[in-house]
Design goal:
heterodimer, A: 451 residues, mainly alpha, globular, B: 978 residues, alpha/beta, Rossmann fold, Dimethylsulfoxide Reductase, domain 2, 5 domains, seven-stranded mixed beta sheet, 30 helices
Chain lengths: 451, 978
C-alpha cells in the first residue's frame, strides 16, 4: 500500500478505532446544544423571508425583481452560478482526491459532499424561480408529450444546463449516500431508541459489514467517482456556455469553460475551508482536520488564485486584441473603469490579491486569517459572477439600450433564503449524519499512526 | 392498439376474434358476489353519493365567467366575422387634420390608417391621429349629459336651452359660440344658420397654440388673413425660424410628406437643404442640415438682418436693424441663389416676425412657387384678440350665453382664472366637451359631443380639398354631436347627416363634372373620403410693403420657450395612455413635461437631470439637460398638467399655459426673463433611453450629400467588407417562396414616432405606466433610438427606428430551451407565446434589445389602470393578435397577421401575392415613407432595390446575425468641411 510520506500524520492524537467512532458520533449522541437551536431559528427566519420573496415573485411576476429590457438576468443567475460553483467543492474534493488516492481527504469529504448536495439544491432554485412562467417549467424536460409532441431545443445551453445539473445532482447525492452506508450502520448499531434504530436501519440498507459488502462498497465508490469526475468538469463548463455561446460582449469568450470550472473549484474549496474551520473548532476535531489539512487547502487556493488571475488577464488581453468596440468598451470602460468598476476591482482583489497572502507560512498557520481569506474568496467569486453578468448586459452593443441594474428587496431576500436553506442543511447534517467518514478514517488510521 | 381494438369491436359479431379480445373487458376477479350480480351495496351507494355531491359542489363552486357570444339573428350587410372593413373618415380635433381609413372588426373601429387618396395628407398620419382611436373607448369620457354637474336627460336640456337662448336673443344679449378653428364647411354653414335663428349670436374662434400672427401678417401684406399653403416639396432651400414644421407646427403630415420627398435620395438624385434657427431642440431642428441655436429674442433681429442682406442685393428698401449676432450673409447668399425655390418659415406668434418673413419670401419670389396664398390652410383661424375681448365682455357681464365646443380655455387660456370668473357672469354656459374637462366644470349644461368615430362630419382643411367623416360604430354612450344639438336647438327636425348631404348637394356637387347624379357623387366621395377640386396656384395677391422693425436681442437673463410636445400637442389628448407613454422623439421622456436646460447652464449651476427647480417662485419643475439649447434659454412643453382630463391624464406634468404672455394683441410663447432657483429636491422622470452617444460605433452610418454624389456608398464602405466576411460552417438557410425584408431610409425618417403608436394599436402592446417605464421596461415593439454627436451645444442628432431585425442567423433562436422562437421558411423570426416559459435568455442574447418581457400581468390588472384594464378599453384590441400574458417574451413579428391576411386574400383570388400587397403597421403610418417592406426574393420589389442600394447596411452586421432589416445611410446636405 501507498504510504503517505509527504503528508505525514493524517490523524493526530494516537486514536484507536473506538475513539474515532466515539469522536465522530459525539455530536449525534450528545444533547442538542443550545446554539444549534438558536442558529436553526435564525436560519428558519431567513428561510421564511426567502419564502416570502419567492411567493411574491411567483404571485406577481418577475417584475418584482430589478430587471429590465436590457438586463434580463440579474441576481437570480448570479446566485445560481455562485451556488453551483460552491457545489463543486464536495465532489471535486472527494472524487479528484479519491482518484488521485489522496487519503487525507477522508476527514473532510463527507462534509464537503453534504455541502455540495445542499448547494446544488440552492442553485437549482434560481433558474426555476427566474422563469416567467414557473408553472410551465416542465416544458424544459424532453419526453414524449401531448403538446405536439413538442421537444425541447437541444441547441440551447439552458437545456444543457438542465441535463448537466440534474445529472450532477443525482450523481453527487448518490455518491455521498453510498459513502455513508457503513457509517449509518454504525449509527444504527449504537442507537439506543427503537425509532432511531429503525430509521438508521432503513437508511443503512441492512449493512452488516461482510467482506463482500466492503469489496462491493469500495468498487462502487471508485466507479461512481470515475463517473462523476467528468461531471464536475462538465457542469460548470456547461454553465459557462450559457454565456460563452452568446453574442454579448464579455460573454462570447472561449476561455470560459476552464475559467468557470477553476473558478467553481476555487469558491468550493474556499467554502470547504470556511466550514471546516468552524466545525473543527466547534466539535474539537483538531485531531482529524489537522493544520496539515488546512495548509493543503490553502496551498491549492493559492495556485487556483493564480489561474484565476491568468484568466482575468487573458480576457482583458483578448478584448483588446479583438479590436472590437463592444468588447473593448465592456472590459475597459465598464469593468476596469466605469459605473461597475467597484465590482470589478472587488473581484480582482478578493480572488487574485488576497489569496496571495497564503504564500506566507505565518498566514497559512494563522487560522483566523485563513478563515477571513476563505470568506473573502467567496465574496470575490460572487462579484465575479456579478461582473460577468451585469457589466455585459448593462452596456451592450447599442448605447440607446444601456440601462442600470440594481436588485430589489425581493431578489436580495431570495438570496438570503438560499443562504438560510444552506445553513439549515448544514445544521441538519451535523446533527443527524456522521460528519466524517468513520469507516474511511479507520482505514487510514494505521498507516498514519505515529509509531 | 387502442384504435384497432375499437375497430374490431364494431364488427365483433361477424369476425372470430383472437382469444384475448374475447375476454370480458372488465375483470370480475376479486369482486364480491353481490357486485358480480350487479347489485350495489349500501356502501357503494354512499360512496357514489359522496362523490357526486362532492364533485358537483366542487364544480359549481368554481366560478366560471359567463361570456356571452350571441350570433347575429340578421347578419348586417358587408360584415363577416373575422374580416376587417375599412371606412374612409376624417380626423380633426381643432388642431390637426388627417384624412383616414378606419379599420373596423366586428363593428368596432380598432385601427386608423392614412388615406392615400387625400392630396393633403397623402396617407400619412401622426402619433396623435393613430392614438385617437383609443379615445373612443375611454371610460373617462362623458357618458351622458350633465346639468350643474349632475346627470340629466337630453329632453330636459332640449327644453331649457332653446328657451333661454330665445329669451337672450329677444333681449339682444350676446350668445357666443366659442370654438376651436373649425374646418367643417357644413358646420360653418350651420353656425351661420344658427346666427339667423338667434341674431345676437356671435362666433369666436380660439386656438390654444395659435397662428394668429401669420393671419395678421398676411392680412397686412396681402390683404387676406390666411395661413398659406407651404409647399416643402417645391423648396430646394428651407430656412426655418423656430417653426417645428415636422413636429407640431400647423399641418405636419402634409409638410413631412413634402419635406421627406425631397430628401429620400432614392427616386431623386437631388436633395433639399435645410437651415434651422431655433431656441430649443425641436424635431425639425434635429433633422436640419445646419442648425443654429438662438435666443428667442434674437430671432426678430436675425430675420431683419437677413431681410436687409437680401433687400440690398435685390434693391428693395432697407430697414434699420442692429447687427446680428450670427453671421447670416452665407444664408442670404444661398437664398439669393435659390430664388423661387426657397422657403422661409417662422413659427413665432409675433406679427412683426411674420411680416419680415413675408417680405423675405416676397423678395425671393417664393409666392406662387413654394408658398400659395390661394389654397390656404384652414386649421388655424383664430385671432388672439377676439378671445381676449370675449373674456373681457364675459367679465363685464355682456355675454348672455356661452357655448363652448372643442375648446378648453379654462385649462389652456393664459388667463384661465379670468375666463373661469367670466363664466360665472354668463347666464347660460353650455359645454360640448366629450370629457368633464376644466371648462365643462364651469358649465351649466354639458352636452357631451360624440367621438369623431361615432359622428358625421366634413372638413375643408385647405381650400378646395374636402373630406367626409362617417361614423364607424353606433354611439357607445348617451352622447350627441354638437351639430345635432345645435340643429335641435334651432328647431330643425333634421339630423346633421342630412344637413351635410344637403350642403354637399348645394355647394359641392355643382363644382364637379364627373357625376351627373348627386347620389353617385355622394357615394363616391364617402367611399373615397375626399373630394378635391383641382386648383391652380395662379396669380398671388398683391404684396403691400409695410414698415419692418426689430427689437434688439436681449443680452442677459434666462429666456423661456414654451412649445408643444410631439406626443401631447396642446393637451387635448391627455387622457390617452398611448400618447402619455410615447417617448418624446428627442429626450425619450414619457409621462411628464420637464424644463430643458442647456448642458453649459447645468454645469455652471450644478444641475442634474431630475433636479427640481422653482421658476419665478411659482412652479416647481424637474430639469432635463438637453444638448442643443443655447445657454440661458430654457424650454418646456405645454399640454401637460391637466386637472380634469380623466383617470389617466389628471395631474401628469405641470401646466405652463399661465406663462403665456400677451404682446401686441397676439399671444407670445416665450418669456424674456424667468428666475430659476434650485429647490434641492428631485423628481423622477421616466425615460426610455439613458445614453445618447454612439461611442464611436457605426450604428448610424452617415455621409454628406457632396460625398454621396461622388460615391453613393460613402460612409458605408465597410458594408461591402463585412458582406465578404460572412462565412459559416452551416448550410445557408433557404427561403424558397418569400423572404420578407424591411428597409428603413434613415434620410427620410424624421423620428416623429407615429410608427410607435401604430404598432402599439396594431399589435396590442401594453401600456405600463411611468414607474415601469422608469425601470426601463417599456413594451414598444418599435422604438426610435436617438443619438447626439459632436458639439453638445449644437449636436448632430440621429433618429433610428429599431424593431426586431428578423435575423436569418438569429442569436435569440438557438438559445431558447423550449423552442419558443423558431425561424420560418419565409425568414421570419417567430414567437410562440404559449411555448414560452420566460427564461429571458433570448432577450439577453439579442444584440438589438428588441425583445420585451411581460414583467407583470398587464391585462385586467388594477395596478395598470390603462386601456387594457377595462372591458371598454379592451375593445380597441386587435383580435388577430394574441394578448400576451404575464411571463412571456414578445417582440415585433413583422405584423405576421397582416402577411397571413394578405396571403389568404390572394389565395381566395387565386393569385400570387403582389409587391405592395402587404404593408407593415409602422410602414403604413409613416408620414415620411421611410419604411418599405416586401419580398427579398422578388428582384423587382422596392425592398430588394433598397437592399441593393449602395447606402444600405445592416445594424451590427459584423455580428453575422444576417438581419432582414436594412438601413439606408443618413445623408446630410452639409457643406463639406475642408
Amino acid at each position: 500500500m501507498y504510504k503517505t510520506k509527504v503528508r505525514g500524520v493524517l490523524i493526530e492524537g494516537n486514536k484507536t478505532h473506538g475513539q474515532i467512532t466515539a469522536d465522530v458520533m459525539r455530536p449525534m449522541e450528545q444533547k442538542t446544544p443550545k446554539w444549534w437551536f438558536a442558529t436553526m431559528g435564525l436560519a428558519t427566519l431567513g428561510m421564511l423571508a426567502g419564502m416570502y420573496a419567492i411567493v411574491n415573485t411567483v404571485v406577481f411576476g418577475i417584475g418584482t425583481w430589478g430587471l429590465n429590457n436590457s438586463v434580463a438576468w440579474g441576481w437570480g443567475i448570479i446566485n445560481f452560478v455562485w451556488w453551483i460553483g460552491i457545489g463543486h467543492a464536495g465532489t471535486a474534493f472527494s472524487i479528484f482526491l479519491l482518484i488521485l488516492r489522496q487519503r487525507w481527504r477522508t476527514s473532510i469529504n463527507r462534509a464537503a459532499e453534504a455541502m455540495t448536495v445542499v448547494a446544488v439544491i440552492c442553485a437549482g432554485l434560481f433558474p426555476l424561480l427566474h422563469m416567467g412562467r414557473i408553472w410551465l417549467a416542465f416544458f424544459i424536460f424532453p419526453y414524449p408529450n401531448t403538446r405536439g409532441p413538442l421537444w425541447v431545443n437541444f441547441n440551447s445551453p439552458l437545456f444543457w444546463d438542465v441535463v448537466a445539473i440534474s445529472t450532477y445532482f443525482m450523481a453527487s447525492a448518490t455518491f455521498w449516500y453510498i459513502g455513508m452506508i457503513p457509517d449509518l450502520a454504525t449509527v444504527r448499531d449504537r442507537a439506543k431508541s427503537k425509532v432511531k434504530r429503525a430509521i438508521y436501519g432503513f437508511l443503512s440498507f441492512g449493512w452488516v459489514g461482510r467482506a463482500k459488502s466492503w469489496l462491493r462498497f469500495e468498487t462502487a465508490a471508485l466507479i461512481l467517482g470515475g463517473l462523476t469526475a467528468p461531471l464536475v468538469i462538465a457542469v460548470h463548463s456547461i454553465v459557462s456556455m450559457d454565456f460563452a455561446t452568446s453574442v454579448m460582449a464579455g460573454w462570447h469568450t472561449t476561455v470560459f469553460p476552464p475559467y468557470f470550472v477553476v473558478g467553481a473549484i476555487f469558491s468550493g474549496f474556499a467554502m470547504v475551508l470556511t466550514l471546516m474551520i468552524i466545525i473543527r473548532k466547534v466539535f474539537k476535531y483538531q485531531d482529524y482536520v489537522t493544520r496539515g489539512h488546512l495548509d493543503a487547502i490553502a496551498r491549492i487556493l493559492t495556485f487556483i488564485s493564480l489561474i484565476m488571475g491568468t484568466a482575468y488577464a487573458t480576457e482583458i488581453f483578448v478584448a483588446w486584441y479583438s479590436a472590437m468596440e463592444g468588447e473593448i468598451y465592456t472590459f475597459f470602460h465598464n469593468r476596469i473603469a466605469g459605473d461597475y468598476t467597484g465590482a470589478f476591482w472587488t473581484m480582482v482583489t478578493c480572488n487574485v490579491v488576497f489569496p496571495q497572502l497564503f504564500w506566507f507560512r505565518r498566514i497559512r498557520k494563522n487560522l483566523t486569517m485563513v478563515f477571513i481569506i476563505s470568506i473573502i474568496i467567496n465574496i470575490g467569486m460572487w462579484f465575479e459572477r456579478y461582473v460577468i453578468i451585469i457589466t455585459s448586459l448593462t452596456k451592450d452593443y447599442l448605447p440607446a439600450n444601456w440601462a442600470h441594474y440594481s436588485p430589489t428587496l425581493t431578489e436580495v431576500l431570495i438570496f438570503v433564503g438560499t443562504l438560510s436553506i444552506f445553513l439549515i442543511g448544514v445544521l441538519l447534517f451535523i446533527r443527524y449524519i456522521p460528519m466524517m467518514a468513520m469507516s474511511e478514517l479507520k482505514g487510514i488510521l494505521k498507516e498514519t499512526r505515529k509509531d | 392498439m387502442k384504435k384497432n381494438r375499437n375497430d374490431h369491436q364494431m364488427s365483433k359479431d361477424k369476425i372470430k376474434l383472437p382469444k384475448h379480445y374475447r375476454e370480458p373487458e372488465f375483470s370480475v376477479d376479486g369482486l364480491s358476489d353481490e357486485e358480480k350480480a350487479g347489485k350495489s351495496s349500501r356502501r357503494d351507494f354512499l360512496k357514489m353519493l359522496g362523490f357526486t355531491v362532492g364533485y358537483a359542489t366542487l364544480a359549481s363552486s368554481c366560478e366560471m365567467p359567463v361570456r356571452k357570444a350571441i350570433p347575429f339573428l340578421n347578419k348586417p350587410e358587408q360584415m363577416t366575422p373575422g374580416e376587417a372593413n375599412f371606412y374612409a373618415s376624417t380626423f380633426f380635433d381643432g388642431n390637426d387634420y388627417c384624412s383616414l381609413l378606419v379599420k373596423t372588426r366586428e363593428g368596432r373601429p380598432i385601427k386608423i390608417e392614412g388615406n392615400r387618396l387625400s392630396s393633403v395628407t397623402k396617407g400619412g398620419t401622426t402619433a396623435r391621429v393613430q392614438a385617437s382611436v383609443l379615445n373612443l373607448y375611454d371610460t373617462s369620457r362623458l357618458q351622458h349629459p350633465l346639468k350643474n354637474g349632475e346627470k340629466t336627460a337630453w329632453e330636459e336640456i332640449d327644453k331649457k336651452v332653446p328657451t333661454q337662448l330665445n329669451d337672450l336673443a329677444s333681449e339682444g344679449k350676446e350668445i357666443t359660440l366659442l370654438t376651436s378653428s373649425l374646418i367643417s364647411p357644413s358646420t360653418r354653414q350651420l353656425i351661420i344658420d344658427f346666427k339667423d335663428k338667434y341674431p345676437s349670436a356671435n362666433w369666436v374662434k380660439y386656438d390654444p397654440v395659435s397662428a394668429s400672427a401669420i393671419l395678421e401678417a398676411n392680412r397686412i401684406s396681402f390683404g387676406t388673413a390666411v395661413v398659406p399653403a407651404y409647399q416643402f416639396e417645391n423648396a430646394d432651400l428651407i430656412v426655418g425660424f423656430n417653426a417645428d414644421f415636422l413636429g407640431t407646427w400647423l399641418s405636419t403630415v402634409e409638410y413631412i410628406k413634402g419635406y421627406a420627398k425631397r430628401r429620400n435620395l432614392i427616386d431623386e438624385k437631388t436633395m433639399s437643404r435645410h437651415h434651422q434657427f431655433e431656441s430649443m431642440m425641436s424635431l425639425t431642428g434635429s433633422n436640419a442640415d445646419e442648425r443654429y441655436p438662438i435666443r428667442p429674442s434674437e430671432e426678430q433681429n436675425l430675420l431683419l438682418n437677413l431681410y436687409n442682406e437680401i433687400a440690398e442685393a435685390t434693391g428693395a428698401d432697407i430697414h434699420p436693424a442692429s447687427p446680428a449676432k450670427q453671421n447670416i450673409s452665407g444664408i442670404a447668399k444661398e437664398l439669393l441663389n435659390h430664388k423661387g425655390k426657397s422657403l422661409i418659415v417662422c413659427g413665432t406668434n409675433d406679427t412683426n416676425n411674420q411680416l419680415i418673413v413675408n417680405a423675405i419670401n416676397y423678395l425671393l419670389g417664393n409666392y406662387g412657387k413654394t408658398i400659395d396664398l390661394n389654397t390656404p390652410l384652414y386649421t388655424r383661424q383664430a385671432i388672439d384678440k377676439e378671445m381676449d375681448e370675449l373674456v373681457k365682455r364675459m367679465n363685464n357681464g355682456q355675454v348672455g350665453a356661452l357655448l363652448v365646443y372643442q375648446a378648453n380655455p379654462a385649462y389652456d387660456y393664459y388667463d384661465a382664472e379670468k375666463f373661469a370668473e367670466g363664466t360665472k357672469k354668463v347666464g347660460l354656459t353650455v359645454s360640448f366637451a366629450d370629457y368633464h374637462d376644466e371648462t365643462a366644470q364651469h358649465a351649466t349644461y354639458v352636452c357631451p359631443d360624440s367621438n369623431y368615430l361615432e359622428s358625421w362630419n366634413d372638413a375643408e382643411p385647405k381650400a378646395g380639398h374636402y373630406s367626409l367623416g362617417q361614423p364607424t360604430i353606433p354611439k357607445l354612450f348617451d352622447t350627441r354631436q354638437m351639430q345635432d344639438s345645435l340643429l335641435k336647438w334651432m328647431d330643425r327636425e333634421e339630423e346633421y347627416f342630412s344637413y351635410i348631404r344637403k350642403y354637399w348637394e348645394k355647394e359641392l356637387f355643382p363644382r364637379q363634372e364627373k357625376h351627373l347624379v348627386f347620389e353617385s357623387f355622394w357615394n363616391k366621395s364617402l367611399h373615397d373620403g375626399v373630394f378635391e377640386i383641382k386648383t391652380e396656384t395662379g396669380e398671388q395677391p398683391e404684396f403691400n410693403a409695410s414698415p419692418l422693425k426689430a427689437k434688439n436681442p436681449q443680452e442677459n437673463g434666462i429666456e423661456l420657450l414654451l412649445y408643444e410636445s410631439v406626443a401631447m400637442g396642446s393637451g387635448k389628448f391627455s387622457n390617452n395612455p398611448w400618447l402619455q407613454e410615447l417617448p418624446d422623439p428627442l429626450t425619450k421622456i414619457t409621462w411628464d413635461n420637464y424644463l430643458s436646460v442647456s448642458p453649459s447652464y447645468a454645469r455652471k449651476h450644478k444641475l442634474k437631470n431630475e433636479d427640481l427647480v422653482r421658476m419665478n417662485g411659482k412652479i416647481e419643475l424637474p430639469v432635463f439637460i438637453q444638448p442643443g439649447i443655447p445657454e440661458n434659454v430654457m424650454a418646456i412643453a405645454l399640454g401637460y398638467g391637466r386637472q380634469n382630463a380623466g383617470k389617466v391624464g389628471n395631474g401628469v406634468g405641470k401646466n405652463l399655459y399661465a406663462f403665456v404672455e400677451k404682446e401686441n394683441g397676439t399671444r407670445r410663447y416665450h418669456l424674456d426673463e424667468v428666475e430659476i432657483e434650485k429647490t434641492g429636491g428631485t423628481y423622477p422622470l421616466a425615460s426610455s433611453q439613458a445614453y445618447y452617444e454612439q461611442e464611436g460605433r457605426d450604428i448610424v452610418r452617415e455621409t454628406t450629400f457632396d460625398k454621396w454624389k461622388k460615391k453613393p456608398n460613402s460612409g458605408n464602405e465597410i458594408h461591402e467588407k463585412i458582406e465578404k466576411l460572412h462565412v459559416t460552417l452551416y448550410d445557408k438557410a433557404e427561403f424558397p417562396n418569400f423572404h420578407w425584408g424591411l428597409a428603413i431610409n434613415l434620410n427620410s425618417c424624421i423620428g416623429c414616432s407615429a410608427c410607435e403608436i401604430a404598432c402599439q394599436a396594431e399589435n396590442n402592446v401594453a401600456v405600463i405606466g411611468k414607474e415601469e417605464v422608469r425601470k426601463r421596461r417599456i413594451m414598444h415593439w418599435i422604438r426610435i433610438d436617438s443619438y447626439y454627436s459632436e458639439d453638445e451645444e449644437n449636436p448632430q442628432v440621429y433618429h433610428q427606428p429599431v424593431m426586431c431585425q428578423q435575423c436569418d442567423n438569429a442569436p435569440c433562436e438557438n438559445v431558447c430551451p423550449v423552442a419558443a422562437t423558431p425561424h420560418s421558411n419565409e425568414g421570419l423570426n417567430m414567437m410562440a407565446y404559449n411555448r414560452c416559459i420566460g427564461t429571458r435568455y433570448c432577450m439577453n442574447n439579442c444584440p438589438y434589445r428588441v425583445r420585451r418581457f411581460n414583467w407583470f400581468e398587464y391585462v385586467n390588472n388594477k395596478k395598470f389602470p390603462y386601456n387594457m384594464e377595462s372591458e371598454l378599453g379592451q375593445m380597441v384590441l386587435n383580435p388577430d393578435v394574441t394578448v400576451r400574458s404575464r411571463g412571456v417574451v414578445e417582440k415585433c413579428t413583422f405584423c405576421s397577421q397582416r402577411i397571413q391576411h394578405k396571403k389568404l386574400a390572394a389565395k381566395k383570388e387565386g393569385r400570387q401575392l403582389k409587391e405592395g400587397d402587404i404593408k407593415m403597421a409602422c410602414q403604413e403610418a409613416c408620414p415620411a415613407d421611410a419604411i418599405v417592406f416586401g419580398n427579398l426574393n422578388n428582384k423587382d420589389s422596392e425592398v430588394y432595390k433598397a437592399f441593393k442600394n449602395p447606402r444600405n447596411y445592416h445594424l451590427l452586421e459584423q455580428l453575422h446575425t444576417l438581419p432582414s432589416v436594412g438601413y439606408l445611410t443618413r445623408v446630410r446636405n452639409k457643406e463639406t468641411k475642408t
